[in-house]
Amino acid sequence: MAKKKAVAHTAIAEEPQVEAQTPPKKSVKVEPSTPKWEIKDRRYMLKNGQSPLTFTIKSREIYWFDEDKNYERELKYTKNQKTVFVDEFKGDARLDHITFEDGVLYVPKQKQPLQKLLSLYHPDLNKLYVEHNAVQDAVDEMDSIEAEIEALMLAKDMDMDQAEAVMRVENGSSVTSMTSKELRRDLLIFAKKEPKLFMSLATDENVEIRNMGIRAVEARIIDLAPDQRTFTWTSNNRKLLTVPFDENPYSALAAYFKTDDGIEVYQSVEKRLK
Hints:
Layout lengths: L41 E5 L7 E4 L4 E5 L4 E5 L22 E4 L2 E4 L4 H10 L7 E3 L2 H24 L2 H12 L8 H14 L1 H8 L2 H14 L3 E3 L5 E4 L5 E4 L6 H9 L2 H14 L1
Antiparallel strand pairs: 1-6, 1-7, 2-5, 3-4, 8-9, 9-10
Helix pairs in contact: 2-4, 2-5, 3-4, 3-6, 4-5, 6-7, 6-8
């Protein structure tokens, strides 16, 4: 019987797989984007609501440092040049004036040299005049409306003791003789007219403490010396406090009421007023 020949199996070694390496990404420096110049009509207004019949700002002898060119450039506004940079003028230049009428200067989009001079290069920008920004005006107006609403809501729900304290800062001792309706009315008017000031007073704990001190003096529980330098008990003339030099006496009294010794005095005054 013939023997079967053994078949030799040759092992084929597999090539090791090499993972493809992704080259490291280069970091890209992102430069801050410069606002794109928009071709549009523009309006400029004198600051602080000024509105003289006419007001002229300078249109020559203006200098602006050009960081790209690394030198200072002279600018002029002219009737016939397509640029305001003197070093780019071609031929003779006829100087023109820049005049606001009733506090306003309207510059149509066709006058690009004047717009760029006023919006980008003129040294009086944001000093004597500003460029009208409708979007920013809307934001500011919304902030003002929201502040007014917040102040009115706080005034509407404020308790009478705090209302009296706030209005005493605004109206003085006359609040003592006011009815609750009159006090609430004046509080709402104050909140509407001066919402920011009202909010600062309404959230200042010292206002109520100052009011307590003023009421104590009006009720002759505490006396304030004629020179406004000393507080004493009316009943026995015992000194409570010497007011520091150049400080409001009631502010000093409010600060005293918050000390360890002053807390007991405050509580005693509060009980007597009730």
